[in-house]
Write a structure and sequence with these properties.
β1 (19-24) and β2 form a beta hairpin. It is globular, with a radius of gyration of 11 Å. With 75 residues, the protein is an alpha+beta fold. The protein contains 3 helices and 3 strands, in the order αββαβα. α1 packs antiparallel against α3 (57-69). The longest helix has 13 residues, at 57-69. Helix content is 41%, strand content 20%.
């Protein structure tokens, strides 16, 4: 997850009021923090677990799923 996709992910989740966290290999970061996302150093194909908690969590998860499935618009 390099800088451009990380920034796109942050922009996406900032539109929602819920808490969003990304988990990878025991590390958990706030998905609204670009620095947190970059510290994961997640390479393409890495398995990430996304947690959304709050009133608009389902909508946030759908937006994140769409973002990942689209390849962050870079494919």
């Amino acid at each position: 997850l390099h800088a451009r996709p990380a920034a796109t992910l942050v922009q996406t989740v900032l539109a929602f009021g819920c808490d969003v966290h990304i988990n990878m290999d025991g590390s958990r970061v706030n998905a609204k923090s670009i620095m947190g996302l970059l510290t994961l150093a997640a390479a393409q194909g890495t398995r990430l677990i996304v947690d959304c908690d709050g009133h608009d969590a389902e909508e946030a998860m759908a937006a994140i799923r769409e973002l990942f499935e689209s390849g962050f618009g870079e494919q």
